[in-house]
Design goal:
The chain has 401 residues and is of the alpha/beta class. It is built from 17 helices and 13 strands. The structure holds one RNA strand of 82 nucleotides.
Length: 401
RNA sequence: GGGGAGAUUCCGGAGUGGCCAAACGGGACGGACUGUAAAUCCGUUGGCUCCGCCUUCGGAGGUUCGAAUCCUCCUCUCCCCA
């Protein structure tokens, strides 16, 4: 993955295109120059807490920046926060995170690496993966006190979410205040030259600088990436259902990107594809549907591969553009003569017979292409598959047993 | 140590004896339309042997013809004062 180093200014431009804050720009130029002069790869830290299992495409933005560094010949240092996860990052939250069990943390860590591996080359010669329990697990109470003595209450209370909670009379727990210090301590431990984080991480990133200086290291450069909004333009979040999971199958991922609202396209192009600004510009001047199709193809070929992207684009066009059947319809073997509502449930197309009845009532159900209206109709099944369809996206070929 | 608030259907959050399978918002799903799984509009959103029946409102009991709503105990959350 290592390539010949780019001139500093070129690298700088490529990096800054994908960041929202750079602390400091001069510092960034300086480490890039130093790295080139000493031909030493920069240690670029990125920490994630394994607090949940599904990584989505919004999380991919900083990881993609990490990958850009990797391609420039630098060394990503991935910190799996199995220590900090036990505490939980209070950033942006107005309540405490529930503490996670050891088992949950271990499970989440494993799924994280799988997902991140889609974006970043995790081979040990081009990437360093560290678990921060490595240094936190062995600290005793006096070590904690020593760490705590590095920060001041006033400084920690500058944080927005702490400040807000204090003024709203919501609790701010002592251990939460230690979180930024822990993240900063990670930087000291891995001697990072640069740390990347989402743009809500700036405060925590700064702690790394502070602690590194106290320990006699040079302060890391902090880079934050812009926030990628969800498909509907709101903050990307699972509860809004507006995210794209990194592990989504190609067809699904393609469709999800196609459901992006038009206004989001330009950001998504910039933050998720390698296209240049002028290329993006000209794509956006064309038809929005074509542009979105291009975006979807780019994203799918990035996270899957080019041929899946092509296949996904084809089947999307066929299924939704021309309203034809998808190319693969799952089969199920069922008893012949069941009432339609029960048949749909057995085929797994609906969650319950009540649900089936509702769908039929709403005109969503087709049997062999014919709209069905009677939930009690007995459906004979034979060796020739009977095509069951619920809505535009649920299909099954039923065969009698 | 003292005082107070609360646990509701996927989520948030109404409801404080019958009109409650439970408002409203979010999410999800369906239909129409289209430029697409955009946008917009309309509708659905506990289960079943479905014009009727069954099980839900933290857990266990109790009062009542009738309880998400009242009482008792339990579990768990949260706030304020000290």
């Amino acid at each position: 993955m290592t390539s010949t180093p780019l001139p500093v200014e070129q690298a700088f431009a490529q990096i800054s295109r994908n960041t929202s804050d750079i602390v400091t720009e001069a510092g960034l130029r300086q480490v890039l120059e130093l790295s080139q002069k000493e031909s030493r790869p920069l240690r670029v830290k990125f920490g994630i807490d394994p607090t949940f299992t599904h990584v989505h495409i919004g999380h991919a933005v900083p990881i993609r920046l990490l990958h850009i560094f990797q391609q420039l010949g630098h060394l990503p240092v991935l910190i799996i926060g199995d220590g900090t996860a036990r505490l939980g990052d209070p950033t942006g939250r107005n309540d405490q995170r529930p503490p996670l069990s050891k088992e949950e943390v271990a499970h989440n860590s494993a799924t994280y690496l799988e997902q991140i591996g889609k974006i970043l080359d995790l081979s040990s010669d081009v990437c360093e993966v560290r678990y921060n329990s490595e240094w936190f697990a062995g600290m005793d109470f006096f070590d904690c006190l020593r760490l705590a003595s590095r920060g001041t209450a006033a400084r920690l209370l500058e944080r927005d979410d702490f400040k807000k909670r204090m003024s709203d009379n919501l609790p701010v727990h002592l251990h939460e205040m230690l979180y930024p210090l822990m993240q900063g301590w990670d930087s000291v431990q891995v001697e990072s030259d640069i740390e990347i984080g989402g743009n809500d991480q700036l405060f925590n990133l700064h702690m790394g600088r502070l602690l590194q200086e106290r320990e006699g290291q040079s302060a890391q450069v902090c880079l934050t990436t812009p926030l990628l909004l969800g498909t509907d333009g709101r903050k990307m979040s699972k509860t809004y259902g507006n995210h794209v999971p990194l592990l989504a199958p190609a067809n699904d991922m393609f469709g999800k990107v196609m459901s992006l609202s038009d206004e989001q396209m330009s950001d998504w192009f910039r933050l998720l594809t390698p296209l240049t600004d002028s290329e993006i510009q000209s794509i956006l001047e064309g038809h929005p549907r074509e542009a979105k199709g291009r975006l979807a193809s780019e994203v799918v070929s990035w996270l899957h591969d080019a041929s899946s992207a092509e296949a996904a684009a084809d089947s999307f066009k066929r299924q939704f553009g021309e309203k034809k059947l998808p190319d693969e319809i799952p089969e199920c073997k069922l008893e012949s003569g069941l009432a339609l509502a029960n048949l749909l449930k057995e085929a797994g197309l609906v969650g319950s017979t009540s649900d089936a009845r509702r769908m039929i009532q709403q005109g969503a159900v087709k049997v062999n292409g014919e709209q069905a209206s009677d939930p009690n109709e007995a459906i004979p099944l034979g060796e020739t598959p009977t095509l069951l369809q619920v809505g535009k996206r649920r299909f099954s070929n039923a065969i009698g047993v």
